[in-house]
C-alpha cells in the first residue's frame, strides 16, 4: 500500500519518511500553511529523495503561472490539487504537465462521494480528506477524521488515498474498516503545527506494519 507523508520541509524528516517506507513525500505550496515551503526547498528535498519515493506537490486552486514555476523548480512526480478544482481543471492540468494528478476532495456526507464520481477517469487518484471546520484557514492538514463508513458506498473503481486525522493510534482501526490504495498523513506525525517529528513518523509506520500483520 502507498503511504504519503505530507508537509515535509527538512532533510531529517524526509529521511525518516523514506526509511519508514514512504512511497510518496508531499510538499505544501500554500502560503497560509505552517507547512508551506519554497520551490527551492522542495526542489532540494525531492532531489535527495529521487528514485526512493514519488514527490508530490500540493497546491490549492493554483493558476498555470504558479504551477509552471513549481513544476519547473521541483520536477514532481505527482500534482495534488487540494482546492475547488473542477474535473475540467484537472484535465487541463494533466494535459499541460503530462503528470499524474491526485485530486483531493473534502468528505463529510455521502453526497460528497457522489461528487467524487465526476473525477472518475479524469484524476489518476483521489485523496479523501475531512471537510475543514467552518472558518478554517487551511483546506487540509487539519488533523480531523471523517466517517470512514461513507467509503463503503464506493464501487472500487476509484483508486483513493485515505487522509484526514490519521495517526499511529487510529491507523489500525482505519485499515480494518476500509481498503484504500494509499494512506496520507500530515499533522499526525507533528509535534507542533508544521513541525514533523521523526519519532512520530517511525511510530506511524510501526502501527501500519502491526495492522498489516494482524490482517495477514
Ligand atoms: O497540510 C497543509 O497545511 C495543507 C494546506 C493546504 C492544502 C493542503 C494541505 N495538506 C494536504 C494533505 O495532503 C494533508 O496530508 C491532508 O490534508 C491530511 O492532513 P492531516 O489531517 O493533518 O493528516
Give structural notes.
There is one protein chain. It is built from seven helices and ten strands. It is of the alpha/beta class. The strands form two sheets. Strands 1-2-3-4-5-6-7-8 form an eight-stranded parallel β-barrel, surrounded by five helices. A hairpin with a 2-residue loop joins β9 and β10. The protein is globular. Ligand LARABZUK binds next to β2 and β8. The site of the ligand O=C(O)c1ccccc1NCC(=O)[C@H](O)[C@H](O)COP(=O)(O)O has 26 residues, from β2 and β8.
List key phrases describing it.
single chain, 216 residues, alpha/beta, 8-stranded parallel β-barrel, two-stranded antiparallel ribbon, 10 strands, 35% helix, binds the ligand O=C(O)c1ccccc1NCC(=O)[C@H](O)[C@H](O)COP(=O)(O)O, tryptophan biosynthesis, RibuloseP-bd_barrel, isomerase, phosphoribosylanthranilate isomerase activity, aromatic amino acid biosynthesis
Quick structural gist:
Residues 3-206 form the N-(5'phosphoribosyl) anthranilate isomerase (PRAI) domain. The chain has 216 residues and is α/β, with parallel strands linked by helices. It has seven helices and ten strands.
Radius of gyration, CA atoms, in whole angstroms: 16 Å
Number of helices: 7
Give the end-to-end Cα distance, rounded to a whole number of Å. Answer: 14 Å
Give the % helix: 25-40%
Structural class label: alpha/beta
What order do the strands of the largest sheet run in, or round the barrel if closed?
1-2-3-4-5-6-7-8
Order of helices and strands: EHEHEHEHEHEEHEEEH
The hetero compounds bound to this protein are: ligand LARABZUK
Shape: globular
Number of strands: 10
**Mean of all residue-level pLDDT scores:** 96
Give the strand content. Answer: 15-25%
Main beta sheet: 8 strands, parallel, barrel
Low-confidence stretches: none
Amino acid at each position: 500500500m502507498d503511504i504519503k507523508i505530507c508537509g515535509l520541509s527538512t532533510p531529517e524528516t524526509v529521511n525518516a519518511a523514506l526509511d519508514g517506507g514512504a512511497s510518496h513525500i508531499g510538499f505544501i505550496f500554500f502560503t497560509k500553511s505552517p507547512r508551506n515551503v519554497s520551490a527551492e526547498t522542495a526542489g532540494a528535498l525531492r532531489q535527495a529523495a529521487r528514485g526512493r519515493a514519488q514527490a508530490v506537490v500540493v497546491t490549492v486552486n493554483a493558476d498555470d503561472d504558479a504551477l509552471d514555476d513549481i513544476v519547473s523548480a521541483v520536477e514532481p512526480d505527482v500534482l495534488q490539487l487540494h482546492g475547488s478544482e473542477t474535473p475540467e481543471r484537472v484535465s487541463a492540468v494533466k494535459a499541460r504537465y503530462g503528470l499524474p494528478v491526485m485530486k483531493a476532495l473534502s468528505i463529510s456526507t455521502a453526497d460528497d462521494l457522489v461528487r467524487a464520481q465526476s473525477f472518475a477517469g479524469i484524476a489518476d487518484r483521489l485523496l479523501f480528506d475531512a471537510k475543514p471546520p467552518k472558518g478554517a484557514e487551511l483546506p487540509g492538514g487539519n488533523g480531523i477524521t471523517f466517517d470512514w463508513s461513507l467509503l463503503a458506498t464506493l464501487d472500487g473503481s476509484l483508486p483513493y488515498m485515505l487522509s484526514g486525522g490519521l495517526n499511529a493510534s487510529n491507523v489500525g482501526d482505519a485499515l480494518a474498516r476500509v481498503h484504500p490504495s494509499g494512506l496520507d498523513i500530515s499533522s499526525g506525525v507533528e509535534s507542533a503545527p508544521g513541525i514533523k517529528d521523526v519519532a512520530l513518523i517511525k511510530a506511524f509506520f510501526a502501527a501500519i506494519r502491526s495492522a498489516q500483520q494482524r490482517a495477514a
